[in-house]
Amino acid sequence: MIDYKKILQMHFDHTSQRTIESSLGHSRHTINDVIKRSQAKGITELTEEMDNEWLFGLLLSGRINL
After folding, report:
1. pTM value?
2. Distance (Å, rounded) from C-alpha 20 to C-alpha 6?
């Protein structure tokens, strides 16, 4: 499962995508996608309510899996 919250926490702490990749085991494509989707939704920081389930719903709403 993708750890949306941890990806964004590390991104907001100015961690490079390569370091996030090696730390969490997610591809750079996935990390880049999560970051771009959060930017498109205007997320600039995380709050207590933003757990993985909440972030999944926000970031991937309307996404169609074929």
Report:
1. 0.88
2. 9
